[in-house]
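Q: How would the structure tokens look for this protein?
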Amino acid sequence: WGYAYTQTGTYNVCIYAYSTGGCVDTSCYQLTLISDSVWPGDANADGVADIFDILPIGIAYGSTGPVRPSATNNWVAQFAQDYNMDLPNGVNYKHADCNGDGNINITDVNPILMNYGQTHQKDEPENATINSQNLWIDIVTDTAVVGTVIEAIINLGDNQNTVSNVYGLALELNYDPTLIDSINVDVDYSNSWLGNANNPNELITLDTNFLSNGNMDLGITRTNQVNMSGGGELCAIEIFTTDNLTGKQNNLYKTLELLIGNAKIIQFDGTQIAVNLISDSIILKQDTTALKSGSKSLQDLDLTCYPNPSSGMFNIKSNIILNSAEIFNLSGQNVVSSTINNKQFTIDASGLPPGIYILKVEGAGLKKNQLISIK
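A: Here is the predicted structure in token form.
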């Protein structure tokens, strides 16, 4: 048997041996644990695997250290030797090495997703804060017909009010889940002033959507240890609205609010930038005659992907003819592309390393995303 200690300190340990004749022998020892345990995915060592764990990975990106013995991505406390550097709040870099391979890079995002929402008992030291800045949502239109796609822009500062020395941020976005049609939400970081999302040596991103809970988590951080100053768009979100308000209170019109909940913005040295959270809303209108010209709908697109997880071969089935299928890694890089003209096909991703990826398919002007896992 074994026991995993999750906190540093001195412990008195006693071992008892019992004979069949009823004799008892006892040996006691004093153990001093000088290295706290790693929980894969809890990169900031605050006791939970969540969107905010992408930030320390960005700070420590590219660092190397001791390989964690018998490393696993399972949510269990694991002994690990310290790296020779600490995060600004005193947490050792080893916690950002989520998969324990001795290298802090994009692959350390996978354990965050695998253990998302898992908790253990521990508190994260806080950092000092500096003057507040506006973190705000701008929904592109004021009204929309139900069953269409709406676009919301997440902004930090603007052209007239720039923000200095930003390294990364993470936020929680809340909404009414009865007004959203699909768990698939597109997030586009291509116009972010914080950096190039196609280059993991400059920027990495992470986003997750929990439709049943009505919240979405977004994280974006630089990885080159250099702050960035600017203002305006950080990312654009495409949200697929419900196609029918029937049965809902006030079913001809409904207000969809996008509310920023918890948010954290940091500089490379760990200093937190205080934020003013500014939300936005849109009026959804019931229209049974036609969708707005140029709008998109997911009401006729069904997608099945199996097996998932797999070793890299995924069978795709849809009720419409699909034109393209692409696989992206979590940094937004397109790693597999396939041009098709069929409702059913197989996409080969066996050349990719194990981890979590995003499958994007498109056909007849419709599109859909799905998380896939390669084991």
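The longest helix spans residues 54-60.

The two ends are 29 Å apart (CA to CA).

Upvote if useful.
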